[in-house]
Design a protein that fits this description.
single chain, mainly alpha, two-stranded antiparallel ribbon, 2 strands, 77% helix
Length: 442
Amino acid sequence: MAQRDHFATRLGFVLAAAGSAVGLGNIWKFPFMTGQNGGGAFLVLYIVFVLTIGLSVMLAEFAIGRAGQRNPVGSFRALKGGAWPAAGGLGVIAGFVILSFYSVVGGWTLAYAIKSVTGALASNDPKVLGAAFGTFIADPLDVIGFHTAFMVLTLVIVAGGVRHGIERAARILMPILALLVIVLAVRAVTLDGAAKGIAFFLTPDFSKVTWNTVNAALGQAFFSLSLGMGTMITYASYLNRQVNLPKTAAQVTLLDTGFAVIAGLMILPAVFAFGFDPAAGPGLTFITLPAVFAQMPAGALFSFLFFTLLAIAALTSAVSIIEPVVSYLIDERKLSRRTATWGAGAVIWALGVPSALSLGPWKDITVGGKSILDAVDYLASNIMLPLGGILIALFVGWSVAARAVDEAQSGGNHPFALARAWIFICRFVAPVAVAWVMIQGL
């Protein structure tokens, strides 16, 4: 078998894995989820779930990937065989499904970065901006064009390989991402009237907590870490055995959580400062925030920086979503990386076209009462990812527990004091909790 590519440094891996986790889920979805679920109490629950269930499932994926040294299917087969490789296959299929619509939304972020510069977003009226957004997503040439551009950027990085493509991009893009999110957060918290938004975000009011809040926090914690689709299994397969897996998983988790918290401080204080609704839902990003920027000094600049930030976050995640697919084609089908990347990318691009058209020319075509884009998102987020997470936790907790603990300890080189607690969470807590989210989502 050909020598497997590996990350050159542990820092490169941490940045790439954090880039996978830090995506639209953190910067687009987290702030409006917080706004819809009462602010500070949601934040506290989110952090608790991230540091327990999320971290445990991430470490489980790391252990499977590094022990197996292959794609999700091959890693499950190397450790146990039987029917378990199908769990890895679910992750590979999820890559096709998720990136098909994720690339469409990623294209929107590229378009809005450009619109920020051209003055197309220079209005402080959400109704005007809402109409402009509706016109944009209904234009087939625009949405397919930006979907194509976003997909090409993703494929260029992945075709470069692990060290020269994924790791190099992460080393460049993640520091830029961090700088942009900090600059924008500092600007937001220094606006007149921002104190109300800061208090809303950071002061928990547990009287507002309902089962819906708990369910939303657990779901957001799980999905924001890019778990359940084989991404972390694949990335960990490019690690050597000297790396301390629990420490690395904790670092990735903390980076991801830090970005989410700063994203909240970047968006919610600004929304409160100008009197908009923090519970505006998905439209908070593409409709409400441009109205906020339009009222700020140098608003066009900050709008451009924000949508550039969003595009970079989407790109680092998109790279990780397709990598399990590419790794599978290289390992199992013996394709070259270039052929695997562009071949898989072409199929995913084609699968994304119906999602791109579903809010415009094909808006009357529905699946289960949802637009094609929403239906594909629902399939991935509510069925495929939770199911993948449950199977990963059960596999580590029950089927290969001893091997997983040995892998987490790097064969005894890095003693792991919380090994028993980790296996307990994988056996009982994570499967039940994720199944709960899955059932509620259905």
